[in-house]
Amino acid sequence: MAATSYNSFVAPSRRIVRLNQALADQIAAGEVVERPASVVKELVENSIDAGALRVDIELEDGGLTCIRVRDNGRGIHPDDLPLTIVRHATSKLGGPEDLVEIQTLGFRGEALASVAAVAHLCVRSRQADAEVGVELRSVPADEPRLSPAGMAVGTQVEIRGLFASVPARRKFLRSEATEVGHCSEAVIRMALVHPEVHFTLRHGRRELLNLRPGTEDERVQQLLRRRGRGPFFFLEGEDEGVRVRAWLSSPEAAARGRSAAFIVVRRRVVRERSISQIINQAYGDALPAGKSPIACVMVEPPRTTVDVNVHPQKAEVRFSEPQRVYAALRRVLGRELARAPWAGGAAVEPSVAARGDADATASGEAASGEAGPREAGRARRGRVRWRRVRWRRVRWRRVRPTPSAARTRSAAVSTAFSKMFFWTCSQGILARRTARATAGLVAAGGRGLGEPRAGATAASARRGDARRRGERDAAPGARIV
Ligand SMILES: Nc1ncnc2c1ncn2[C@@H]1O[C@H](COP(=O)(O)OP(=O)(O)OP(=O)(O)O)[C@@H](O)[C@H]1O
Ligand SMILES: [Mg+2]
Predict the structure, then answer these.
(1) Tens of pLDDT along 178-227?
(2) How far is the CA of 372 from the centre of ligand 2 (A)?
(3) Any domain includes 174
(4) Ligand 1 contacts CB of residue 106 (under 6 A)
(5) For residue 46, what are the CA distances in angstroms to 75, 84, 114, 154, 400?
(6) What is the CATH number of the domain that holds 108?
(7) Domain identity same for 303 and 190
(8) Residue located nearest, by CA, to atom 7 of ligand 1
(9) What is the 80 CA–ligand 1 centroid distance (Å)?
(10) Which of 148, 180, 210 lies at the terminal end of a domain, its last residue?
(11) Are strands 318-319 and 260-265 parallel, antiparallel or unpaired?
(12) 53 CB neighbour count, 10 Å cutoff
């Protein structure tokens, strides 16, 4: 009897060979470049790392035809330009010790190399001391070309025909609107933690974002407001060296879904399910089922206790002592949410909070009594140190609508008017028809609905049947009325 194979797919027996560079690059690119939004994220990160104060992003056809990111950062040295698309070539990492305390968003030297493997790329850059810029053009699996370029100081990266040579990847992309939504979300996540930078995002002729520079508070409010109307409240605390700052909506203003919170660790907006759960749990029963608060929670553990090099897209981080971070966050949120304005607690006015550390520490200890005897004991021993705790109602600045927002609004108003006009006309026509039909019904001696009119021919009855079935009447010259 033949032996049963439990593995239905058996690879054909071949010798091991080294993949050619183009194929290896394409495989590696799959981890970094998932969709247009991943490209936007990487390019914007590079602009921020270059110290740009203005970043303009343009998309065409959801980013598939073109993604263009222009910045006013410090630019790239002309001799370095060819290295930008070489894998593991970076200006951001000096040695292994830098990785522990990495300050920049990028550090792997992979992003542009990955993009260049799956799209046409054009990088133009000029540094402040150069009279003219340099342009690099690259096509997948081809040698890049360099030429001089007239431009302002800064860098412009243009990506064309994303995944044109990888049809399998293209198939996984969603509709244009969905992809644009992802790109917009990527810019928002970046803008949230870089309020000093002016970001604009356009799709074709439409301006989707225009985030002017401001304070952190203004930027966070502006972006949270895109997710829900609020009101939002702010709290700040520190526990065992973990600093927490949070902008939180009231439970009534919570959004549907599992998490509507931005979680920021070391100036990166990251995915952290445990922290999202802690935020939801801190609201307790006040949170309606199936909803989660609209929030931005910034957690800052001691510098060397966070590893950012754990995810190819740098969308996740790892804590060296996760339980310590989670417990600290739980304590800060738990204590403060018990005194939240919506919980009927005594909200501390900004003026009261400004009285200083002594009061804040006292209030932290008092509140810690509510958090359980263990925490209370710790606080008494002085291990829980509150620097400053305050609640305040965030005051909204009236944001003047951007020209495009005004245009959208006027277009919406005119559409609504024309809809109303057509609805009124159609109601008039319907009323006249109903009146005519009722008159006919009375004249026919009150036949039932759907019955042929007295004296109607068999052909016209058949036509009526066909019409009711939604078919076109076959009789020549017949009209549907
Ligand atoms: N907009 C920009 N302004 C200035 N320099 C840039 C810009 N974009 C890229 N560079 C330079 O090109 C290099 C390669 O960029 P790339 O994004 O591929 O790698 P990285 O940012 O170093 O690391 P990562 O792969 O983690 O993003 C960067 O190290 C940087 O020196
Ligand atoms: Mg980068």
Answers:
(1) 999 999 999 999 999 999 999 999 999 999 999 999 999 999 999 999 99
(2) 45
(3) yes
(4) yes
(5) 10, 11, 14, 11, 30
(6) 3.30.565.10
(7) no
(8) 46
(9) 11
(10) 210
(11) unpaired
(12) 14
* 56 CB within 6 A, ligand 1: no
- Whether 98 and 197 map to the same domain: the answer is yes
Q: How far is the CA of 150 from the centre of ligand 2 (A)?
A: 24
Our answer on whether the CB atom of 71 is closer than 6 Å to any ligand 1 atom is: yes
Per-residue tokens: 212 = 């002017």
Residues 257 and 195 in one domain: no
Counting the structural domains of the chain, the total is 2
Instruction: Judge if 312 and 341 occupy the same domain.
Output: yes
Q: Could you tell me if residue 90 is inside a domain?
A: yes
158 and 58 within one domain? yes
Distances (CA, A) of 336 to 248, 327, 348, 358, 378: 11, 14, 10, 17, 17
Contact (CB, 8 A) for 134 and 124: yes
Nearest CA to ligand 1 atom 1: 47
Q: What are phi and psi of 83, to 5 degrees?
A: -75, -15
Phi, psi of 321 (to 5 degrees): -130, 75
Judge if 204 and 221 occupy the same domain. Answer: no
The answer to whether 238 and 385 have CB atoms below 8 angstroms apart is: yes
pTM of the model: 0.72
Other Cβ atoms closer than 10 A to 229: 11
Residue whose CA lies nearest to ligand 1 atom number 9: 46
Domain-located, residue 48: yes
CB 112 near ligand 1, within 6 Å = yes
The residues, any chain, with a CB within 8 Å of residue 91's CB and separated by 6 or more, are 80
Q: What is the span of the domain harbouring residue 42?
A: 21-210
Read off the pLDDT of residues 4-41 as tens digits, 9 standing for 90 and up.
Answer: 555 566 666 788 989 888 888 888 888 788 899 999 99
Cβ proximity of 264 and 193 under 8 Å: yes
Q: Is residue 432 domain-resident? A: no
The ligand with the least distance to the CA atom of 112 is: 1
Residue ending a domain, among 210, 235, 255, is 210
Tokens of 379: 């606080």
Q: Encode pLDDT of 275-303 as tens digits.
A: 999 999 999 888 998 899 999 999 999 88
Q: Is 234 in the pocket of ligand 1 (CB under 6 A)?
A: no
